[in-house]
């Protein structure tokens, strides 16, 4: 048995991410949750290490002996030494990348979206509004082939520079509109992650955001074979929800006083 410590303010999101990463790495796992501890049965140590290295929202994984279910957080963590800790993501925060844009997705959310979409190594993951590549970098670093589309042409070149900086050599980038991604791509992708523009200072074509998302989901239905992880401002979610055939998971995530978003996994 292995115990994953779920991190961050939003434990529900951390658990959703753990489930996605488990499915992508080793298949469906049996999970029991207590407070901030998720106990998973049936993993090898090597599999547990692989899963924790993918995660953004969990700190560490511990191996538990039979009957050791009461791993506690804080002072009482037991056993004391984790099997492995998650990779450090903070050195890829937007301002630390060679090409900075304030509206680029930060690495913790980007990695969580890649995991929620259950992107596997070797598979193609699409971000149809890729900016300077925050999501694409995280997808590339876990071994996926990142595929990006962005309406602002100059950002495509800058996304390429970021990807190369992090050693990602296999990728596909296009200038164009997310709503036309079915005409832009020549090959399908296995997963997609979408963090659309919202907020007063964001640049949007084809908005408002609900319209952009609905039209984009329409186009994605032609090119995505698997799951789509997306963020939607809470006030737009009801309308966007109507436009998808299946919602597999959703969680409410409060960003600050005036922004709460829904993070969802959908089939178009
Ligand atoms: C929040 S940012 C996305 C950040 C990106 N996911 C990342 O990983 O850095 C939203 C992006 O959507 C782009 N955008 C706006 N309208 C678009 C459209 N119709 N098609 C494609 N991209 C669009 C904006 O230029 C902006 O770069």
Write structural notes for this entry.
- The protein is α/β, with parallel strands linked by helices and 268 residues long.
- The chain has two domains: 2-87, no CATH class; 92-267, Vaccinia Virus protein VP39 (Rossmann fold), CATH 3.40.50.150.
- The protein contains eight helices and twelve strands.
- The chain has helices at residues 11-26, 45-54, 107-116, 134-141, 153-165, 181-184, 209-223, 234-242, and strands at residues 2-6, 30-34, 37-41, 58-63, 84-85, 124-127, 145-150, 172-175, 191-194, 228-233, 246-256, 259-267.
- The strands form two sheets. Strands 8-7-6-9-10-12-11 form a seven-stranded mixed β-sheet, with helices on both faces.
- The radius of gyration is 18 Å and the shape is globular.
- The two termini are 35 Å apart.
- The mean pLDDT is 93.
- Bound molecules: S-adenosylmethionine (SAM).
- Residues 103-105, 110, 127, 129-135, 149-152, 155, 177-179, 195-197, 203-206, 212 line the site of S-adenosylmethionine (SAM).
- S-adenosylmethionine (SAM) binds next to helix 4 and strand 7.
Summarize model confidence as the mean pLDDT. Answer: 93
Shape: globular
Seen as an oligomer or otherwise, the chain set is: single chain
How many distinct folded domains?
2
Sheet-strand content, in percent, reads: 25-35%
Largest sheet: 7 strands, mixed
What CATH calls the topology of the largest domain is: Rossmann fold
């Amino acid at each position: 048995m292995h115990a994953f410590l779920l991190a961050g303010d939003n434990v529900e999101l951390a658990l959703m991410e753990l489930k996605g990463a488990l499915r992508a790495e080793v298949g469906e796992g049996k999970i029991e949750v207590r407070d901030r501890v998720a106990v998973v049965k049936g993993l090898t140590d090597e599999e547990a290490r692989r899963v924790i290295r993918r995660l953004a929202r969990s700190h560490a994984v511990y191996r538990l002996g039979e009957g050791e279910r009461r791993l506690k957080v804080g002072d009482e963590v037991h056993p004391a030494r984790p099997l492995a800790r998650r990779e450090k993501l903070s050195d890829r925060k937007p301002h630390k990348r060679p090409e900075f844009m304030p509206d680029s997705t930060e690495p913790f959310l980007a990695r969580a979206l890649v995991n929620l979409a259950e992107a596997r190594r070797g598979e193609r993951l699409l971000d149809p509004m890729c900016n300077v590549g925050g999501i694409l970098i995280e997808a590339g670093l876990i071994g996926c082939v990142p595929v990006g589309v962005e309406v602002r042409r100059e950002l495509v070149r800058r996304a390429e520079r970021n990807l190369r900086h992090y050693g990602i050599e296999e990728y596909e980038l296009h200038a164009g509109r997310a709503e036309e991604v079915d005409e832009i791509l020549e090959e399908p992708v296995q997963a997609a992650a979408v963090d659309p523009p919202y907020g007063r200072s964001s640049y949007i074509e084809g908005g408002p955001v609900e319209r952009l998302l609905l039209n984009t989901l329409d186009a994605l239905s032609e090119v995505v074979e698997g799951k789509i992880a997306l963020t939607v401002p809470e006030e737009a979610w009801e309308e966007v929800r109507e436009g998808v055939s299946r919602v597999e998971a959703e969680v409410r995530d409060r960003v600050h006083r005036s922004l709460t978003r829904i993070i969802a996994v959908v089939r178009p």
